[in-house]
UniProtKB/TrEMBL annotation:
Protein name from the UniProt record: Uncharacterized protein
Stored InterPro entries: NAD(P)-bd_dom_sf, Sc_DH/Rdtase_CS, SDR_fam
Similarity comment text for this entry: Belongs to the short-chain dehydrogenases/reductases (SDR) family.
Naturally occurring in which organism (per UniProt): Pisolithus microcarpus 441
Gene Ontology MF terms in the entry: oxidoreductase activity, acting on NAD(P)H, oxygen as acceptor; oxidoreductase activity, acting on the CH-OH group of donors, NAD or NADP as acceptor
Signal peptide stretch: none
Keyword set includes Protein biosynthesis: no
Keywords: NADP, Oxidoreductase
Amino acid sequence: MSKRLRFISATAVAVSSTAMPKKSKPDWTFSLVVTYNPFTMASEIRQEVKTQSAFPIGPLGIEAALEAKANPSIQPRLKIFDQFAVTDRVALVSGGNGGLGLETAIALCEADARVVYCFDLPEKPSEVFVASQDYVRRLGNNSRLEYFSADARDQQLLWKKAEEIGDKEQRLDICVAAAGIAKPQIDCLKYPAETFKEVIDVNTNGVFFTAQAAGRQMARFGRGGSIILFASVAGSVSEPGGGMVSYGSSKSAVLQMARSMACELGNQKIRVNSLSPGIIRTPMTREIVNTVSPILDAWLRSSPLGRVGRADEVRGVVTWLASDASSFCTGSNIVVDSGYCAQ
């Protein structure tokens, strides 16, 4: 009997659905008569909820305050920062050679990850990555920032690389699928098939293959984990001026991907959420941000904060999603867009 039916007494009652000829085999249907023991169920559920809600670092907030009141020998201490720590955890980040991928990788190292493995297309890491690697080394918390070359569109390669990481580290806890591309604005009725496929292949398939590779290792080691898929506000609202049908479609797919994976993997304690940034100043958005364009003009006029975002303004959200501070959050889309979608 399944866990959910543990306290249910069930009796199957066979009922003949139709009057059968004598020589015919009866067509039986079954109805389930269910009885509950509310007292046993309530007690067991309370115990299960208490167990599920227990935080690894002990009681928090009100519960910690009441425990300290009951036991004066307990010395209260700050725990809020411990909730956001990812101590000794192993992460995989796509698009990690720069931009939002590298920014979030550094944040995870600062949050005390054991190691963050970044991958991207270039054979060798960029100067920015090397500088970031040295910076992480000098943090003094023994966290490591590593790089390997891989194409997010290559499913089998990603599975292999993630398995190698699992073999070496004996765990994989966090995945940030941040690799993505955008193309210049093109009229939707003239959009070339190959260009459309290219964007979908990186932004949708690549994100899925990255999440898949990490999720397989999370399931393998049975510790659960957190998968963060980079979507975009363009997946929820159309870009001003049009011409971004491939990008918007690819990001919209990521939103549903996160919801579907969250529902499917929740019973393995693997959380999956998406993150939808607005226009963030990165190498990919340089052309939009540094030139007068309908997209930027509409953004500045419609955004309550009236500006584009900085890459470091996404760090906190990713760290929250990666850590136990967001342990009850899965299947959600977190919007970081200066209020653009609130209009």
